[in-house]
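tool_call: predict_structure(chain=1)
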Amino acid sequence: MKKALGLGFLGIVIAACGLQGLPGDGGTGPGPGPGPGPGGGLSQAEFDQAWQAYRAALDQAIQDLGSDTVFSAFNTGPLPLTQDMIAFLQTPRPSSVHPLRVYDLSMQGVRSLSHPNPSSELPRGGTDYTLGEPVPYTPPSPYDFGLKWPHNTQVAELLVDWDQDDQSTRWAHDRDGVSHEVPQNTHIQMTLGEGGGPMPPLNAEVVGTADFAAAWYDCNGTPILEPTFLSFTGSLGQIKQLNWDIGYNLTEGTTDTLQAHVELHTTNTNPTALLRLDLTLNGTLTRGSDCFISEIEVQSGEFTVTTQAGDESFVFNITVSSVQLDAQGNPVRIDLNGFVEYNGQQALSFSGFLDQNDFQDDTCPGANVTLVFSDGSVSLQEWLQSRGHCGPGGIFG
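tool_result:
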């Protein structure tokens, strides 16, 4: 069974199906306007045509972004670059927390902390790949970690300051009592220049920056590997840029609220593109004797997905009015409703519920969710099946 599906299920299903199943028609201009019918909106055929126009514009924006030399430099970096950045991005995620699952955890309390070891530390020092064999080098102050590698006739350098503004790193323990070094305030910079060896690249130009901030839950004076706040912002690109803003905030009180957002957008591309996801969950959160979240029950929530490429834009608005869970914390029913906007006007509406049958791997979901177009209604399941998005193996099967 697919456990703990998120509130964005419906919007993501519609969007993903459009991305996989609706080929672009090569045009990038505005698509059809609202069609006739009760309450306006688009017909099914008009909706498909609108998505084709959006997909074509998005493909063009992505191709144009990829033409910036910084992205080829970043992608051809040494293997440790990929490994270290992946490790860095994975570190600050919530530990075993999902908004629609109740966890059955043994209440063992906080175990004795393991002694910090090198495998739990954030990487430090520098490695230079511009001289053939990798050699160590000392990153310039105030940076703690650095990598240099050749790209065509230039030298790329990635630098990380784990404790920006003297906000030192902390040792946070996981559920097993193992400690991990985590940042509170980090700055990352990437440059392109000339030269190589132990000296910094000549005429180096800053082509990427990022800032990361986090607050870790305090368990009786000791942080645990569970954030209450995260922020990761930045941009990458010499002329054509990818910008991002990712955030997470947990507020505990009479009603516990989890808010999260993700925004990606391009600048100086033709056309520009945007993807923004906003999530708010309201409910009751319970922490175990080890201070980690042991249970979170959702009473309501809102999820919005905004995506735009050139003149084409879609907004998926989803409201959850009820979530029912079984004894193991798996969702058995999610009541929802909402609508989809195209270029600022309503394209379709939907309502209904998802039940445990929708969460089966081999099931085409949405039998009880009704999509209302201007030319009639159809279930989400029928809509997916008619467009080839559901096969014998379930969605995309």
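agent: Confidence is low (pLDDT under 50) at residues 1-39, 80-115. Proceeding to next step.
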